[in-house]
Write a structure and sequence with these properties.
The structure is a homodimer.
Chain A: H1 7-20, H2 28-35, H3 39-55, E1 60-64, E2 70-74, H4 79-93, E3 99-100, E4 104-105, H5 114-128, E5 135-139, H6 144-154, E6 158-161, E7 172-178, E8 184-190, E9 199-207, H7 211-222, E10 226-236, E11 248-253, E12 264-266
Parallel strand pairs in A: 5-6, 5-9, 9-10, 10-11
Antiparallel strand pairs in A: 1-2, 3-4, 7-8, 11-12
Helix pairs in contact in A: 1-3, 2-3, 4-5, 5-6
């Protein structure tokens, strides 16, 4: 490159690279080489970026020391921004036209809107960095986009349990579970999808009785995997005899009646 | 805010905001207010950012003029980076241990690795910005993460067709299609998931005979939706009598034999 690269260019490009691969550690040497600059110069850039990220509540830029050290970016919303973001979704969901026959709530659109799922994924990751999961687990289908975005913010792979694994996908482990409608269904995961002894974070879209989540926990037991946390986008309030505990929902849904406005509110920890 | 915000801080923060919401137009006033700066100052920042994004092949930063004008960021890989990225995935897939009984290829891990799916999603979006889709359509399950990332880079919603829409999800449109195994299956979409008269970009994970994609096209006809483009991650080479044409794969897969190395190569347009 002929023209020298200025600090403002370096900082903008670093921020882009760090934002595109959240929670991944980039060495200072990586950036020094990229910009043909001294490591001390890059180190000053990072210090300035750290301050900027904090000032505008964009998450956290962290310097990691040690042999595999460097800098990483973790997206997160400040507690104020977090609550405002979830309240906005609650408002979108609190719409009588979303109530379907049988007292169900239509929310598939919210779960595949890029801005919504990116925000929810970042929020979930922000609450779970300290749990150090090796992967994110979800059960098909509607929770996949949010789970994928959480996995992306954590910089970890997503593993998707399915109703049936076709024979042509290789050996699989099957587990029965109680579905939302009360029937017994099967969830399945290819044997090679998960390494024994790892740590999983469960992310799912909806919880009523907890059957699906209980199924995922049983499934992970077959792989000798520890569950470090369980988050769901929406949980029904006031359900008796839930099959699981320690589940953190982003939002709580009250009992719904046809023609009435559904009551959706942020969970207390948000 | 007490301390004045410097240009390098403004540029880094703008880059973060633009990268987090790809293809969304932010007005200069938005940033001017955010930084308590003059619009002319922000406009100079944007000009410098545009140069930096181009210089480091990070995609494109574009100034959009007119009433709803402003600045937007479109992630994309340069043609060199694009080919290198896909070649790297081809190499990962060209592994005899991935061949499953019956001559199938295991690739679910590639389709839920955040770095891979973000890259593939950006690549797909980069080829499709000009097609101006209103939404991205996929059929559950394995293609959802890539389709979600393409939707994110395009700044448009994702719509997911499913095998069965449960009664509690409201009215749905069903279409029969020929599945990969040759049987007849059904795909289903809630009536309210798509507005009539819109434009769809189809993104799916795998194509052999084209049955699933043909089904999605039939399904969209029911909604009076125009298909502006169809992309798949992986397509079998040398398949006779395919049900669809004009499908762009990212990679091509040769006939596979148990115990042999699968042959996976980038499609010519990559």
């Amino acid at each position: 490159m002929t023209e020298k690269i200025k600090r403002n260019e370096r900082m903008a490009v670093m921020m882009q690279v760090l934002t595109t691969a959240p929670n991944r550690i980039f060495t200072l040497s990586h950036f020094a080489e990229m910009f043909d600059a001294a490591k001390s110069t890059v180190s000053e850039d990072v210090a300035l970026l750290e301050k900027a990220v904090e000032r505008f509540s964009l998450g956290r830029l962290e310097t990691v020391t040690g042999a595999s050290g460097g800098v990483r970016y973790r997206p997160a919303l400040g507690s104020g921004g977090r609550r405002a973001f979830i309240e906005d979704i609650c408002q979108k969901l609190s719409d009588p036209s979303r109530v379907l026959p049988g007292g169900f709530l239509y929310y598939a659109d919210i779960l595949s809107d890029p801005e919504m799922v990116t925000g929810m994924g970042n929020l979930i990751a922000g609450a779970c960095y300290g749990l150090l999961p090796d992967f994110v687990l979800t059960m098909e289908t509607k929770g996949i986009p949010v789970a994928m975005m959480a996995a992306r913010a954590l910089g970890k792979p997503l593993v998707i349990a399915r109703h049936t694994i076709k024979a042509y996908e290789g050996s699989a482990v099957n587990t029965p579970y109680v579905s939302a409608s009360g029937g017994i269904e099967t969830m399945s995961l290819p044997r090679r999808a998960v390494e024994n002894g790892k740590k999983a974070l469960i992310v799912d879209d909806f919880m009523r009785g907890g059957g699906t989540i209980s199924g995922m926990k049983n499934l992970m037991r077959e792989f000798d995997v520890e569950i470090v946390g369980t988050l769901v986008v929406l949980a029904m309030e006031a359900v008796d005899n839930r099959l699981v505990d320690n589940v953190r929902p982003l939002m709580l849904l009250g009992p719904i009646q046809h023609g009435e406005t559904p009551v959706v509110r942020p969970a207390d920890w948000i």
